[in-house]
Amino acid sequence: MSSKRGEHAARVEEVRIEDEMEQSYIDYAMSVIAGRALPDVRDGLKPVHRRILYAMHEMGVTSGSGHRKSSSVVGETMGNYHPHGDKAIYDTLVNMAQEFSMRHPLVDGQGNFGSMDGDPAAAMRYTEARMSPIAEELLDDIERDTVDFQPNYDDRLEEPGVLPAAFPNLLVNGSTGIAVGMSTKIPPHNLGEVIEATIHLIRNPDCDVRELIDTEALLPGEGGTDGPIQGPDFPTGAQIVGSDGVIDAYTTGRGRIRVRATFEEETSANGRERIVVKELPFQENKARIVERIAEDVNEGTIEGIADLRDESDRDGVRIVIDLKRGASRDVVKNQLLEHHLESTFGVINLALVDGQPRVLTLKETLAEYVDHRKEVVTRRTEDELAEAEDRAHILEGRLRALEQVDDVVETIRDSEDRDAAKAALRERFDLSEPQAAHIVRMQLGSLTSMEATEIEAEYEDLTDRIERLEEILADESELEDVIVSELREVREEYDEPRRTGFVRDAGNVTREDLIAEEDMVVVVTEDDYVKRVPADTFTPQRRGGKGVIGADPKEDDRVASAFVASTHDNLLCFTDHGQVYRMKTYEVPEYGRTARGTSMVNVLDLDDGEQITAVVNCGAFTEGSYVTMVTRRGYVKRTAGEEFENILSTGIRAISLADGDELADVEVTDGSQDVVIGTEAGMAIRFDETDARAMGRSARGVRGISLREDDRVAGLAAIDDDVSWTLTVTANGYGKRTAVSAYRRQNRNGHGLIDIDTGERNGPVRAIETVSPGDHLFVASEQGQITRTPVEELSELGRNTMGVKVMETDDDDAVACVAIGEPDEGDEE
Fold first, then answer.
1. In order of start, what are the domains of the chain with their CATH numbers?
2. Is 126 an active-site residue?
3. Residues forming a β-bridge with 787
């Protein structure tokens, strides 16, 4: 008993558990990598794909045979070659039959093999399959010792370790797989382009990878290379956006390719605009896309869609998106692209090379295929040569026998049996064993003169064939010619036009692209509430009206400023503290007329008590522009526009202010204009802007107007050739427009001229602007009432007049601010 225990103990080997776990995991990982998940660079197939095709080949289920039940193909594959379960095998068979999954399907399926909506295929007992014609090109010449075979899983049979592959299937059909710690994702390509690239590489083995890429197609007009391969060619079509991802994928083996749905713009019979999606990005679920679009429409994430229908059929994809009347088609398109109709295909060109996973460039991928094809053609040629030489050897014996036919017949007749006859023939006529055996088996009818002529002709043909095969084996260029010729035959038979197009990369869809461009009225209150309301909410009316509610300040709050700007305008917001901030109009949340708005902290980082007093559009800046500012105490300053190009989120200093002074108004000028400063007491002074020299942002400026006691600056206006009038509005809702010629030019720092009578009826001046024909005047009151009036509605009066009623205000209300906008399109008509 003790001796047996000793024997057992001697067979026990102690190992560290971490070492054993590490080695076992590596073995498992390599098994998954090499045996299941990654394709071979030579034939572009994973083992399961290869085994299905070889099983069908062995069953005779070729493109010329009838379809066979998929279950029989799956059973044959599982029983003989791939013992991993029928579901995995059938799923692979289905994938190889789907036209929307493979650029050139390798299986010709009959029945329900699923759809782009994610519908599964019918059970394998209901569907039928056979090899497609192009799949036979992968197996062509497999019987001619062109590839190595290996034992199957139970050593009963042999299976090919790789297929001969008459075309570069890895690039043509692509591959996707997840292994342990790595994955592959290779896009499909156009067969004709891939074959041309392969031929180019065979003829120019030292070429650069970029010579294989048609960068001129990717970047038209930029003088790129015109190589054979334009880019991936997906079975579902669609469009590749830009070129960077494609070039990265081909030159490094990794890249991110943006793929965009193809759509058209149509107009329905009732005149409604619509967007019709015709092609979707590769591997996208059509039904899920439609469902997500509908969800976003219901949730308000996407606006402007009235109806959504999937009208797809066997002829192709057709998703119809009807737009609401007045909706911007470009905005809806960009919203759809941002969320649903554009995806990224991450290329990882990882494949097995000599059993090891490698990330390959385009050139390396094709070079590995060319090496494989050279080996296949070489082995096939050697096999054909051996066969031809064997046949020629037999024919040589037959010809020798025909030359001495009487002696041959006599020798055979005088022999006791076949073995004796063969021995006698070998000895008397110097024949080999195969030759003697063949002659003994010959029939007398083959000794005719006609038969002899046919044998001589066959022998001559065989001699020529042997000479050609030896030439191919002896000369590499001849071998390459054979490969090129066969590749061209495949191209002629199976090439198809490209399905995937290209569009220039205009950059990622931005938030601005998703917002319609329209004029907005932005309202800011003293307690720092802000909102924007579409300008067309306010209908133009005759002067003197009360207007409509444009804001609803809370108790003890009141409107501080309002301005009109397009949603896409890039704005500089100047505050009474002398700071300037930058923002886009669309960054201000949109609310209804009666809403209070949102806190300013959600838009701009203003200090406590800081108020926006002036807003200018960056679109007004040109080369040589100046930002001209005026303070409440009458100081004016000009600063070059380029000093406001880089503005921090916390703002920058626009002007230095003395204690108790505030920034009142700002205008953009071009260095050759006159400016008019208006005061609350109704005075106005006009002078050349160059009277105030340009200064830096930290300067205080110079005195622009000499104010009388208790007077303050109300605003600033710039005069150029395009303006016709100055427009003055007072706190009690009165105003007037006056020809700019009525304001004579003076030197700065004077008291100016009387602009408007500011008695008890009018109250102090709230704003002074310059306007032109067609402009609209927006007047906002402290309580949130807003009127919109064409400027021509205001009487044209001279200076030193009282003006006319512009806006009706309640006793406890007053005009807060004035903004100038343009008419709506309908108003212009």
1. 23-186 (3.90.199.10), 262-340 (3.30.1360.40), 366-494 (1.10.268.10), 517-828 (2.120.10.90)
2. yes
3. 779
